[in-house]
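To the wet lab folks,

You asked to see what we're planning to order before we commit. Fair enough. Below is the target structure as tokens, and below that is the sequence we designed to fit it. If anything looks off to you, flag it before the synthesis order goes out.
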């Protein structure tokens, strides 16, 4: 599963959090990528352990999405777009636009 956002500038300090705690990239399940003005967080092999609130923070701006996993069907629900579902084994990208 990949969370993606596009900002107006590149080279910004972006922080990804799970349940308000900065994500650890050490175990290799989480991967962050930035290219030009696009910033992404990918989660490999989504399981019930990944359930929680994922927040992207840029300075004082932030946006949060909730990941819920029901058995074999991970689903991402957020205030911006409800009813976005992810099925295991099918890649999807959720785009988040932060507006000041």
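Sequence we intend to order:
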């Amino acid at each position: 599963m990949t969370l993606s956002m596009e900002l107006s500038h590149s080279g910004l300090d972006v922080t990804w959090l799970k349940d308000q705690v900065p994500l650890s990239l050490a175990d290799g399940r989480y991967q962050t990528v930035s290219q030009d003005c696009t910033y992404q967080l990918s989660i490999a092999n989504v399981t019930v352990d990944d359930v929680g609130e994922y927040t992207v923070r840029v300075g004082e701006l932030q946006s949060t999405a909730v990941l819920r996993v029901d058995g074999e069907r991970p689903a991402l629900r957020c205030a911006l777009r409800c009813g976005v579902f992810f099925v295991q084994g099918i890649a999807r990208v959720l785009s988040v636009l932060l507006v000041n």
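Structural context that might help your review: The domain at 2-96 is CATH 2.60.40.10 (Immunoglobulin-like). The longest strand covers residues 61-70.

Thanks,
Computational group
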